[in-house]
Amino acid sequence: MTAVETRVDMSTSLGSVPIPSPVLTASGCSAFGRELEPFVDLAAIGAVVTKSVQLRPRSGRPTPRMAETPSGMLNSIGLQGPGIEGLLAEELPWLAERGVRAFVSIAGTRVEDFAELAERLRGVPGVLGLEVNISCPNVESRGEVFACDPVAASDVIAAVRAAADPAQPVYAKLSPDVTDIVGVARAVTAAGADGLSMINTLLGLVIDPDTMKPVLGGVTGGLSGPAIRPVALRCVWQVHQALPGVPILGMGGIRSGLDALQFVLAGASAVSVGTAVFNDPSAIGRIHEELAAALAARGFASLADAVGYAHR
Amino acid sequence: MTGLLTRPAPRASQPPVQSVVEVTGSRPVNAYVELTLAAPQIAERAEPGQFVAFAIGGDTSALLLRRSIAIAGTGGGVVTVVVAPHGPGSTWLAGLRQGDVVDVVGPLGRPFPMPEPGTPALLVGGGYGAAALAGLAERLQATGSPVSAVAGAASADRLSSVEELGRFAEQVVVTTDDGSAGRSGWVTDATAELVGSVGMVYACGPMGMLRAVGEQATAAGVPSYVAVEESMACGIGVCMTCVLPVIGEDGRTRFARSCAEGPVFGGDRVRFADVGTLPHDVVGADAMGVLPA
Fold it and tell me: Is ipTM > 0.90 here?
């Protein structure tokens, strides 16, 4: 690698909250951060985006929960987690003691669930903001996923924004499994979202040719990894073009600094690294360094200068 | 409190490291390939029962998930593993040659808890699972435990680590399903004869074998620890794919990660019959809509 001056200003923000690095973990891909401690300086990264938490502890689905796919994987974990009590008692204090910023992903099956979670997280030390996982089935709408309906998605975001700590930005995590992602983005922004996380996994299926049955216990699963990167990048591009003032946390198959750069150029002001962590537990720190070097090599003095550059 | 014979295996004493290491040797052993790696940081930290997780195929590989393999030996800064090629990832690993480099994370997982010094121990390995027991046999012998071992496989070419076990065990019984080596039959035929004369049983191998050996030990009132071979995506505890229903210290069953809470579990703590299902009494099953019948 050629020696490049990498004193690029990498600071950015989530909503109005400044963070020193634009590279974050992705929800569901780094648990609550602890396991990465041997590999990453957690206090130096943008934030740990936690695994989605719900009100009650959840066992998650039976195995098998995972199938490897070309440049990606399919997962059906079922949001296994300790519930809000466990998060508040065990995980968030661990992060706060170490000065690690937590961006807490919340999930539920009713609008009130989301609002209650936001309420419980008000003023909790170390909680930088909330990412609202609306890719969950809505029990009040025959299991239709909130994120696939602009009205249901807006209802959740409005309730969360109203209940949440005003100092904590609220990001809506959008699903790519919609015909018009810009429409959903407009709706949740109008409902008060301070930013957008995009994208969640795409719904997929793998059948085992030997058993001739679906591999996953949950039948379908979420597709992630570099296989979905062009889809994610297209979503970020379209939404940034339509809503250039709305901050975007970009994600979907980022594996290298140059992958992250593409998301920044398309309009993301920060990125989450998910499935790549399974391949390389040091990925978050490495991608920060690679992105800084890539920006420097292209003459950018700051990350902010590069956000949305591909549109100009 | 729970009436079980084991306590959950404690965490390892040292955290893992990630490094790109050189392959110092590759040799076919029956149906498997034994790889040696110059990995001093991993070797000095590793304890018997732990594993390493390999990245497959380099930085641009389309196979993203790590492959986890039990550590078969450590010494002189070298880590040894036995690779059983079956899918594209393990076949790539088995094709590594001296001088190649590979990205490896380890040591991972919880090691086998050691018994009181001098406790007679029975080690039971199925197929390449026997490789995970070689380091344990050495440590047990060093702490004064008389070691008996059973190594079994479907056929002679699927046996592993018989010689290594023989260095530290007072006896090694070999069984094969087809009688092509040792006694004809299953490992459980041999363990049934030996389990009554030991104070601790350790096993590594296929799930069905672990279940059978664990049940034999428990029925004889002997504590057992089993190292499971569950497929993992990350190996470090973040992906939540490798879970099994395991009874915790408090007597409640949780979906426990084979990589982080395992791979070594009390043989009487894994609910083998419920693997692949969601029993109603797993912590958090109610939130999934699973209720008692």
Answer: yes
